[in-house]
Amino acid sequence: MPAAAFAVAASVGIALLPTHAQAAGSIHLYKVYYDSPGSDTRSNTSLNAEYVQIKNSTSSAVQLKGYTLRDATGYKYTFPSYKIGAGKTVKVHTGRGSTSAGHVYWGRGAYVWNNDKDTATLRTASGAFRDSCAYNSTRYDYKMC
């Protein structure tokens, strides 16, 4: 924040608190693309168009090995050894594929994320809560968290 803006805010008694992105940074849910385009055919292409995107807003790379991603039903994806770079995102695709920069694959043959409502929950390898993102809409195909 520019010093002048801070001085004005302070002079009128406005407390300025950092926003989520301005804080020290975190590993957090960024987007849930819960309704892949077209008909739900369970093809691998359709399954992989359903994904959750996780963002590293810290200033350092973070090892995600053991982190888990769950839906409200309890389907669980556990990260293999995967390092997410500072400021980068990774998509957890529902279907099968080969891990690459920015992409990991759950390996499922069925959809995980309900097309109307669900909740994605991210936990650390030790089980500590990291973030969650809920949606309740058939109007859109995705939810920005």
From TrEMBL:
<feature type="domain" description="LTD">
    <location>
        <begin position="15"/>
        <end position="139"/>
    </location>
</feature>
<protein>
    <submittedName>
        <fullName>Lamin tail domain-containing protein</fullName>
    </submittedName>
</protein>
<dbReference type="InterPro" id="IPR001322">
    <property type="entry name" value="Lamin_tail_dom"/>
</dbReference>
<dbReference type="Pfam" id="PF00932">
    <property type="entry name" value="LTD"/>
</dbReference>
<feature type="signal peptide">
    <location>
        <begin position="1"/>
        <end position="23"/>
    </location>
</feature>
<keyword id="KW-0732">Signal</keyword>
<dbReference type="InterPro" id="IPR036415">
    <property type="entry name" value="Lamin_tail_dom_sf"/>
</dbReference>
